[in-house]
Design a protein that fits this description.
Layout: H1 2-17, E1 20-29, E2 40-48, H2 54-60, H3 92-96, H4 108-111, E3 147-149, H5 159-163, E4 169-170, H6 173-179, H7 201-210, H8 214-231
Antiparallel strand pairs: 1-2, 3-4
Length: 233
Amino acid sequence: MEDAKEVIEHDFANAAEGGYIVIPARVLHAANFGVPQSRERIIFYGFKREALKEKAIEALSDLVNNRDYDPYPLPTHNFSTFGDNLSNFVTCREALEDLEEPNVTKDISQTKYSKAKYMKKGQGNIEIKLDSISPTIRSEHHGNIEFRRLSEENGGNHKEELNKGLEQRRLTIRECARLQTFPDDYQFILPKTELNKAVSASDAYKIIGNAVPCVLGYNIAMRLAENWDKYFR
């Protein structure tokens, strides 16, 4: 960790010497922005000094006294932060409740899910909590994809669903995409064409897991858009 810290500080110093203003990094929790997932990411900004207004250069160098120039988005939901006018955090139930089961849906991405067996130990072997946020959606292969539900024998807690005869299974491609806040018209399972290579379920899990949650990215972009005229010439 010390080596990583030294590298980051070295890069920040080089950026400053190279004509950039680098804003100290912060950890943003996606659930504080409406993403139904436990996902923390380190974000930092670098602004090219010559593109900034003089006032912006001064303000970005002293954000303590210039909060309105702060490029980081303000939380919109109250998962690990609290404040006035924040919405309740989005739960897995809210994100997934209208999806049909894989055996009846017409959405190809909802029909595909990992068939990796349940293991008592190791990551990827818990079921999501419907009334909370999901674990981090990983980019790794099938055995690391969490369970949508476990059987009663394996400690499943979604009794209402089990009583309906719904079987133990891992999260589908579409469910992972929903938990990353991708829109439903974004299709992940693709055949090979002249324009693109084939995208399999394994590929799709990796693509989704590697992505920045769409809603988090939106909030980051919109905060910059709000301040654009303050920053740039």
